[in-house]
Amino acid sequence: MKYLGIHALPGWVGLFTLLVGAGSARAQTTPISLDSAEVQSLRRHPRLRQAEQEIAEQRALKRGSFAPANPDFLFSAPTGEMWAPGVVQTIDLPNVYRRQRQVAQAGITLAERNREVSRATVLRDTRSAYLALQFAEAQVRQLTYQDSLYQALRVATERLFAAGEVTSLQRISTDAEARQVAVQLQQATDDRRAAQRRLGLLLGRPTDALVTSTDLRRTGQELAQTGTALLGSLPAEDSAALVRSPALAAATQNVALSQSGISLVRARRTPALTVGYQNQAFENSSIRYRFQFGVSVPVWFWTYRSQLQAATARSEAASYQLQTQRLELSTQYQQALADTRKFSASLAYYEQTGLPQSRAIISQSQRLFQAGEISYLVLIQSLNQAFTIQNTYLATIRDYRQALVELTYLRGE
How is 179-233 classified by DSSP, letter by letter? Predict the structure, then answer.
């Protein structure tokens, strides 16, 4: 009777597979590749649109860097006989406007650096979301296979129990395993739906049922090769590895902007020229309107001193921010590098040993059970061990790819 029960499994597995396939065929999905996802996210993500508008703002400010003070229109009565209109204009020395233009240009460069940070962040988020969807899809496929097998085992166990061939403990154990896998499959399906939503939001397509174009499991062997080659080419020093980091470039440019602000404050401490055109004569004078010239002296020294202190403090804060950014990036790089090496070794184990062993465990445990050489509980334990290896293999691929995504982001690639 044992042989008869296990021999009935392929029929149940085939029936369940057909049912799953029919349900999948009814669902309308939209396949998408990683390259296409990256292009769409870069085109539609609001973070990049915001970055473009910030650049436009800084460019508009640069066009107004030559910004003399507003002219003073006034009425005066120099002779005491009549009121006459006049105008007075204060003009800074050319060095002030040159410094203002330099500050504006530094602001444009900083906005451009921030745009590169936004671009790298969007790409990292998109790659992570795509990877999460790949992992969720792989989990659903894996658990669908497990669920079909355990459901067939449960049906077979019910028949064997009714015939008195298995104990109540074996029946309960099989039912518990089948129900547990069914719950895990439902959870994986919910995770896949959430991953589709997350990727869809990044692409501006939140209602589409997106599916990835590549099965995560099939990328393991290629990943093991490319990851090993990448680890061999990475620089040993953090400074060399992070030289193209967009976040580090933005922090460096922020220091340059703050230092140009100090130069601007110092330039504004110099005197300014004053030019006027007013009535300065009696009514019967042949030339009543004359030019007048003067100098605007920065006598309120405490104001300029406070501005210089503030600009200096801002520059020092930017320098410390750069140091903090470099320290954080170095720490993140070392962690991502350690994760890459760790998961590289794990993936190599699963590719060479773990995954083949799991397949062997599944096939041999069924064959031995059919031959009556192992008990029913040993069969369940063997299947659980094999499926645990396969699930861990999928998680290793995901974690390995996520570490590579972080390395790519940190290196500015």
Answer: HHHHHHHHHHHHHHHHHHHHHHHHHT-TTS-EEESS-GGGGHHHHHHHHHHHHHH
